[in-house]
Amino acid sequence: MLDISLRKRLPGFNVEVDLSVDEELLVLFGPSGAGKSLVLKMISGIVEPDAGRVAVANETLFDSGIGVNLPMRMRKVGHLFQDYALFPHMTVSENIAYGIGGGNKDEARKKVGELITVMRLSGLEKRYPQELSGGQKQRTALARTLAAGPRVLLLDEPFSALDYQVREKLRADLLNIHRIYPITTVLVTHDLEEAFMLGKRIAVINNGTIEQAGTQEDVFYRPLTRNVARFMGVRNIFSGKVAALEGAHLVIDNPDIGMVKAPLPPGPALSPGTEVSFCIRPEEILVIRPDRVLGKVQDNILECMITGTVGRGLTTYSTWTAGGQYRQRRSFQFCA
To answer: How many CB atoms lie within 10 A of CB 317?
Structure first.
């Protein structure tokens, strides 16, 4: 298990992060400049925190309170960077073997062979980095990192420089690798699709602080802040006041939409008059033409007019406006 409590003050930017990560793959997700890579550097020892603590299992790697700061080589933390950092004068096998260091040569060869098989590098053992594709370089770099036997694996946007098809394969590879080598892993990304493909747990970081950490379902369907909702792809975020409580639901009054029924969120009880924010995810909007029967749809029915559509491959985004002939209120827009 990895436990971190990190504080770092930089000009115009502060990092204050507290996290616990078990033997799992946790995705540290957030926009560019949120402090994701800096957190990894403080865990691995590249950057020294101003205050805080880093511990793996029962061993303290850094503790400002008692003056502990183990050097990188003693932390057994594998850190994979975006640029792979392979040695250009070494072959694939030699790069991987470098991560093992000294010891029994037969065991080292066996471990290198195992990693070459797991990483789908068979037949490339004698090639040099300049003879490899981007995906092959990435798998070689990950194999070298795992060869050192790290207790914690840190992946800093490992697939960002690769094209879509290669990223798809490498994401699947990473899930398989984590199944074979179930070590504590923290992966940094700002790609929402990648976050949800890889992270059973997600920690959302913004401006140097964790705004929400939890299961994929919690973060996606129950965002705690407007920022988290936006980062999770929610395009329709509104404000309103609680008008009434109806069993397991509450009714929210929004000046544009009107009355909206929503499930009661976890946490403190809400009472009528409380100001709240709520989201309408595009994929949860059901479009029904005015000449069709509504059927079982009873709640949250809103008359709108489509004002525009944008095609994005298999997905089409539509912009809707309520107002004018549909509602004598000021216009607003939301996307489906």
So the answer is: 13
Could you tell me the sign of the dihedral formed by the alpha carbons of 161, 167, 170, 175, in that order? positive
Is 239 found in the same domain as 181?
no
Token digits for 45? 């020892």
Q: Is the dihedral of CA 302, 306, 311, 312 positive or negative?
A: negative
What backbone torsions phi and psi does residue 106 show, to the nearest 5 degrees?
Answer: -65, -45
Structure pTM? 0.84
Q: How far apart are CA 207 and CA 89, in angstroms?
A: 40
| CA proximity to 231, closest of 199, 258, 186 | 199
Give the pLDDT score at 327: 44
161/88 same-domain check: yes
Distance of CA 14 to the CA centre of its chain: 20
Q: Residue 221 is part of which domain span? A: 2-229
Q: Which value, in Å, is the radius of gyration of the alpha carbons in the chain?
A: 25
Residue 294 pLDDT level (bands cut at 50, 70, 90): low
